[in-house]
Amino acid sequence: MKGSLTILFCFVVGVLAGLFADLPAWVTESDLTLWVLYALIFFVGIGIGGDATTLSVLKKSNVRIFLIPAAIIVGSLAGAAGASVFLSDVSVKDAMAIGSGLGYYSLSSIYITEMRGEVLGTIALLSNILREIFTLLAAPLLVAWFGKTAPIASAGATAMDTTLPIITLNSGKDFAILALFSGVVLTIAVPILVTFILT
């Protein structure tokens, strides 16, 4: 719980600073956040490489490791289809297209905008951004309530980059390699799924 509150506090302070503070250009107009993310992933990599047991987890998993991204895809599409029941202006097909973004908001929103228009593309963008933010804020609670693979499922494609450090922190190094693998598979799957659903 403490971890979630700390992340939420940092996020809120960052939003307020962006809104009201006169920040220097090197903060707002540079690739600073991207380099910080690279640094986090680098240190996660050191942690994985320095722990012999983490790679053995991957070897023991065999084909079963594909069950994680497969289950995430099925769950995301089923959840999106179910949510469409409560959204009178969004068809099941369009809802599933949004769900097939799997957290990869930049690519999926571009695809959906081109194929279905700006409104649905914007919904896809916001939906997938919220998925990432939810994972960053709720990872400790997800682990406590649903187990150590829950943040990987919640993160979707972002498990390979932006949410990987928080997954490693809360689920442990053993799950970092699973998160990375799942994130890569889901990232590859996004354009295939979106195109398949909308054509």
UniProtKB/TrEMBL annotation:
Q: Does the keyword Manganese apply?
A: no
Per its UniProt entry, which superkingdom is the organism in?
Bacteria
What does the entry list under GO cellular component? plasma membrane
Give any Pfam family that matches. Answer: Lys_export
Q: Which InterPro entries match?
A: LysO (IPR005642)
Keywords linked to the UniProt accession: Membrane, Transmembrane, Transmembrane helix
Q: Where are the transmembrane segments?
A: 37-58, 65-88, 94-112, 133-155, 175-198
Q: Which GO terms describe its molecular function?
A: L-lysine efflux transmembrane transporter activity
> What's the protein called, per UniProt?
Lysine exporter LysO family protein
Report the source organism.
Answer: Desulfoluna spongiiphila
Q: List the taxonomic lineage.
A: Bacteria, Pseudomonadati, Thermodesulfobacteriota, Desulfobacteria, Desulfobacterales
